Amino acid sequence: MRFALPRFSSNQLKSALYLIAITTVMVMLLFAAPDNPNRDTQVIVDYLSDYTNIPNTVTSVILGTRLFDTIGEVTVFTIAGLGVKILLHDEEEESDFIAVQEPTLVMLLDLAAILSAFLAIDLALKGHLTPGGGFASGVSGATSITLLMVTGRLKQVEQFYFKSNAAALEKFAVICFVLTALATFIGFVDPSSLFATIPPQIYLPALNIIAALKVTIGSWSILRFFILSRGLM
After folding, report:
1. 213 to each of 170, 198, 225, 229, how far by Cα in Å?
2. Binning pLDDT at 50, 70 and 90, where does residue 116 land?
3. Distances (CA, A) of 146 to 8, 109, 138, 173, 225
4. I need a surface site. Which of 99, 166, 192, 195 has the fewest CB within 10 A?
5. DSSP per residue over 43-94, as a string?
6. Using an 8 Å Cβ cutoff, are 149 and 174 in contact?
7. For 58-85, how does the pLDDT look when each residue is reduced to its tens digit (9 = 90+)?
8. CA–CA dist 65, 188 (Å, integer)
9. Where do the DSSP E strands lie in the chain?
């Protein structure tokens, strides 16, 4: 009696190879020696505070010693927004938008929008001094704008979006962030350059504000596409 050998497609073979590779790596990690270097974290925190002369050491890491990673995060966020625009570009816009109409709820949402807007400004301007930063500020700013759209002000917000040329402003913010970051890199590589004379107390808050502007407009662009294509509720 003959037994026919099972036939596997190329996709199944690739999936099996990927599974074997991932399993091998995970097993190796289980038997690998633990990495427990002796680090005095307080010394690191004190060094960052003294080097940047900024109380918020998180900002010192994100926009200082790990700025290269932050550039990658800004780039990924920009590509994600572009992907949403491409995905929803061909969808027809909703003709009837149902917004929140209950007066008491509208008043509460308006209050929340105002508070979110002030919080966004505070996080952008003081993110290097207190907990917060550009990304948190951008989320708060986009939340404020979204609340205005939910309460029936979509047309006014859309008019302001195009009147202020927000899409071009977002691209300009990305370019400014990258150029400012490159200037700081040049200052590190060449201590004799003009960029090396710019203290962290200047370029870190500047990067914070630029990131806040970029994340606010980027989140706003993504949310407006979803609302225009799928409706408010």
Report:
1. 7, 22, 19, 24
2. very high
3. 50, 10, 12, 21, 12
4. 192
5. HHHHHHHHHH--S-HHHHIIIIITHHHHHHHHHHHHHHHHHHHHHHTTSPPP
6. no
7. 888 888 778 888 888 888 888 888 888 8
8. 11
9. none
